Amino acid sequence: MSRKPIIVGNWKMHNDVAQTRQLLGDLHARLGGIAEVDVGVAPPFTSLMLASELLADNRILLSAQNVHYAEEGAFTGEISPKMLASIGVDMVIVGHSERRQFFAESDEMINLKIKAALSSGLMVIVCVGETLEEREAGRTMQRVGSQVRSALAGVDAADMRKVVLAYEPIWAIGTGRTATPAQAQAVHEALRKEVEQLFDEGVAGRLRIQYGGSVKPSNAASLLSEPDIDGALVGGASLNAEDFEQIVLAARPWI
Ligand code: PEP
């Protein structure tokens, strides 16, 4: 089954409003018309409104980096899925390892966020990944399998069309150390089997699974040419328009 590649830049806590204007202007010129690859950016909350206006007339998708699971309420400092949808945000990253690690997000909380975001019509990038210790102990699949099962518990098969899975080994995020294409492919293939067991072959076959962890222009093509790697979630390299463009171009199916 052929799946449209999806490359998303996670800007993390980088880029104020002026920097957002500059980078999006550059990305618009380079990638605004691209049709063969889904391209997205995830700026910080303070830049989402501006980004929504700047991206209104092109194909680049707009993602948030986090969301709360309630529609509204006494949750100081939080943003709801409905609020994101109301300003034209298309999707949200949920379960990033930095949120799990630094903000104590549990599997249960992540599951609530995913279901809430899907009910508001948002696409969701669901991140899973193992620590170095877990990998070395041979527990990678056990860890990511259980993250996927709990993340997707109670999600309707129909909503799975709006879900993208991101396999991000924690030891490869921001470290310059990338999983080899074979290591990443093995986990992606196993994740697709896990999703097939949870849903069915059709859902699993359609599901796009991104790799994330020090993706750069120099390693993107080899990762993206693996059969179960359908895109990339890019941190550091997404802050540079030229590098990000190179990664997107490496995902074009005919290359
Ligand atoms: C990420 O934050 O999702 C990520 C993969 O970061 P980096 O590309 O910098 O490793």
Kindly describe this structure.
It is globular, with a radius of gyration of 17 Å. Strands 1-2-3-4-5-6-7-8 form an 8-stranded parallel barrel, surrounded by 6 helices. By secondary structure, it is an alpha/beta fold. The two termini are 18 Å apart. Helix 1 runs parallel beside helix 11 (241-250) and helix 7 crosses helix 8. The chain has a single domain, classed as Aldolase class I (TIM Barrel, Alpha-Beta Barrel), CATH 3.20.20.70. The longest helix is centred in the C-terminal third of the chain and has 18 residues, at 181-198. Helix 10 (217-224) links the parallel strand 7 (208-212) and strand 8 (231-234). The model has no long low-confidence stretch (mean pLDDT 96). The chain has helices at 17-31, 45-54, 81-86, 97-102, 107-119, 132-136, 140-151, 181-198, 201-206, 217-224, 241-250, and strands spanning 6-10, 38-42, 61-64, 91-94, 123-128, 163-167, 208-212, 231-234. The chain has 11 helices and 8 strands.
